[in-house]
Amino acid sequence: MSHRPPSGLAAVSAALLAMNRHLEMRDVLKTIVASARELLDAEYAALGVPDDHGGFAQFVVDGVSDEQWKAIGPLPRQHGILAAMLHEAKPQRLADVRKDPRFEGWPDAHPDMSDFLGLPIQDGDETIGALFLANKRCPRPTGGCGFTEEDEELLEILAQHAAIALTNARLYERSRELTIAEERSRLAHELHDAVSQKLFSLRLTAQAAAALVDRDPVRAKGELQQVATLAGEAVDELRAAVVELRPAALDEDGLVATLRTQVQVLDRAHSARVTFTSAGVRALPAAQEEAMLRVAQEALHNALRHSGAGQVDVSLARSTTTAVLRITDDGCGFDPDVVRRAGRHLGLVSMRHRAGGVGGRLVVDSEPGTGTTIQMEVPCG
Ligand SMILES: Nc1ncnc2c1ncn2[C@@H]1O[C@H](COP(=O)(O)OP(=O)(O)OP(=O)(O)O)[C@@H](O)[C@H]1O
Ligand SMILES: [Mg+2]
């Protein structure tokens, strides 16, 4: 049975639909190349996406076996006719590619090609690839059919659709990269908020134990038990950060009780006096409670670590439309603009991120010499 290329509108339409069914760049390219080869009845087809270094970021072929492909060796560079298609952005229809003055030879294992049709794939003014075919199948035993003007027009249509499919695939890859970057940043914030604070307390407690070990072994033993507890909690927090669980205490006790307990612990552990008051706050949605707890923890941590305050107050209050968390210290204060510009610190960025993430906002009120108030406000119904 003689081979006949699929033809007509239905075949073209099938090829175009196939191109747009895939989102992964490589699958898109493979479909384009296979469709082009089939529709134009060529022995070989290829598509190259150039990189910025004179080579190809992607190069997909159809009509060459895997063994042959391996034997050919490294990917081609942008030279000869390939370069002409990419840089001059013009179609190339040649009766015999080997006789063209720009032809620079092939690697040993490269299949022999004669008639050639190549087109740039363009997105606006930018050439984003080149699509090309070689050796049109020929019913005449003597060969020499070559690609026709009609073939060129058909390939032109394919190249235009290939541009759309390629651009979509690029956007898809970009959006997937963004999702991964967001996930990485969430994890970084989470680790910073929960785990680094636990480790900080752990280090303090271990230092206290070391200082006590000779003088007061019994108390040192108590501190060491505390070290073990904190280490266990750090492990739990780490696990929670990775699978995005809520801190266990919130589920069991709710936000008000959890905050009160944590404040009491800090009050005992630090020389500063740390207080907690709450007014009229019933349970909030889980995500808001968690965000509030994380913001309170970071603000407390900053106040105790950076401000030298004698007094730190935490309050949680509810009006008809909002719930407001406030952490105030009477310490040294700082210039929020300078810190923001410095860009190295994660704590303030993370607090803002958390407030925004639950539809709320964060206000940082501080200046050198005046103490600091961090306020987080979330809407509530
Ligand atoms: N309550 C505060 N009183 C005084 N200075 C503060 C206070 N809160 C923050 N700062 C200043 O702002 C800086 C940034 O705080 P931020 O929490 O963003 O980062 P950090 O605490 O330095 O490091 P980390 O990323 O571990 O939180 C601190 O280094 C400190 O100089
Ligand atoms: Mg901090």
What's the SSE blueprint?
Elements: H1 8-21, H2 25-40, E1 42-50, E2 56-62, H3 66-72, H4 80-88, E3 92-94, E4 116-123, E5 126-136, H5 149-212, H6 217-243, H7 248-269, E6 273-279, H8 286-307, E7 311-318, E8 322-329, H9 336-342, H10 347-357, E9 361-366, E10 372-379
Parallel strand pairs: 6-7
Antiparallel strand pairs: 1-2, 1-5, 3-4, 4-5, 7-8, 8-10, 9-10
This protein binds adenosine-5'-triphosphate (ATP) and magnesium ion.
Just give the CATH class of the largest domain. Alpha Beta
What do we call the CATH homologous superfamily of the largest domain? GAF domain
Strand order of the largest sheet: 2-1-5-4-3
User: What is the helix content?
Assistant: 40-55%
Tell me the structural class. alpha+beta
Name the shape in a single word. elongated
Bound molecules: adenosine-5'-triphosphate, magnesium ion
Q: Total number of β-strand segments?
A: 10
How many domains make up the coordinates? 2
Assembly annotation: single chain
Remind me, CATH topology of the largest domain?
Beta-Lactamase
Q: Profile the largest sheet.
A: 5 strands, antiparallel
Per CATH, the architecture of the largest domain is 2-Layer Sandwich
What is the terminal-to-terminal distance?
75 Å
Mean pLDDT over the full residue set: 86
Q: Mind explaining what this structure looks like?
A:
It catalyses: ATP + protein L-histidine = ADP + protein N-phospho-L-histidine. This is Oxygen sensor histidine kinase NreB. Its main location: cytoplasm. Pfam families: GAF_2, HATPase_c, HisKA_3. This protein is an alpha+beta fold. It has 2 domains: 170 residues, GAF domain (Beta-Lactamase), CATH 3.30.450; 129 residues, Histidine kinase-like ATPase, C-terminal domain (Heat Shock Protein 90). The chain has 10 helices and 10 strands. Helix 5 runs antiparallel to helix 6, helix 7 runs parallel beside helix 8 and helix 8 runs antiparallel to helix 10. It starts with 7 loop residues before the first helix and ends with a strand. Bound molecules: adenosine-5'-triphosphate and magnesium ion. The site of magnesium ion has 4 residues, from helix 8.
